[in-house]
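Fold this sequence, please.
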Amino acid sequence: MKLAVTAPDRLTVRTVPVPDPGDLIARLPHPSALAWIRHGDGIVGWGEAARLTLPGGHDRFAAAARMLGDLFGAAAVDDPIAVPGSGPVAFGTFGFDPKSPDSTLIVPRRVLGRRDGRAWLTTIGDDTDPLTLTTPPQPPTGLHWSDGALPEHAWKDAVAAAVDRIRAGHLAAGPPHHRTGLGKVVLARDLTVRADAPIDARVLLQRLAARFPACYTFSCAGMVGATPELLIRRTGGDIESLVLAGTTARGHTSADDRARAARLFASPKDREEHRYAAEMVRDALTPLCADLTIPDEPELLTLPNVTHLASPLRGRLTADRSVLDVVAALHPTPAVCGTPTGTAMDLIRELEGMDRGRYAGPVGWVDARGDGEWGIALRCAEIDGTRARLFAGCGIVADSDPDAELAEARTKFRPMQYALHG
């Protein structure tokens, strides 16, 4: 594998404590924003000290970890803060499909962070004032929407075809992991929108962070969104993950909302889908961990627009592995691909009619210690000048209904539609 690397021979990095900066997103000086924010804390970055562009391949995570290890290992680092996210940091997004060449990591020249009541500023290179607002954010205007790869009727046909394939694959009774054929596939669709002027990621970040504070609001290389799904967090030797599978739209009244959540929690279809996703993540993490805990049954995660079945996992790594090594073991999860993985991936390529790019791929950050937080790029859009491409996906199983799946996809588009419209 050949990597395209733009970086100086040696990074000179300095991290200093700073007073509480307030709204981190408001500190971003121009539209090319890098961000990872939850409940107001996290890190934002701007400028570009180094960039890694990776071609496709199953070894892209290992290649990225190796290149960043060399880059950070050769750096001159002054970091008295020494917390996750201080010192040199790379923000990254990876393509969903190993065949996709669309993976990028960026080491910003400036990183402003806040965690547990402590704030810091990291500077790479010359120490000019990085907190001056050079371009005021402007909301998108003149939005014109259109279908993406498949119009709604064609996407429903794809869902129906997937259901037929899954039913044909149920060659043995019992739970999905006892079947020899396809048990689940996640099908996504896209929408496109054009604005009168280039879309400013900072406006979308502000709206998403305010509306969905419990999600991880992110921006990297034009990929902007607010994901509810934590793929992995590494802090020293400790790791955490949050599995989401099984979804219902929020109710129109409190009573309706409670009834929908109760139906989701009791749904055999959703519980089976969730259990298999959690078991697959557990199986991927077990070889890497000395201790791994997973709850006996899922809990409900309630967001402003949907409720998910959720299972938090926690573990302790057996070796000094970078967070990217753990990402490599986990991606793609059944929650965004299906089961078995290879069969589901082939069907996605066949039926979706599009290249997902970085949608449903890992997004997040990693520092020089190997700590980091990575989510799955969901509830997101890819921004390219005046154009944005939005994505939504649904888990298809044997008893899925195309109309119901289309309604779920519409619900999952709404966070980014809100971010664009306000």
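Residues 402-421 form the longest helix (20 residues). The chain is about 25% helix and 35% strand.
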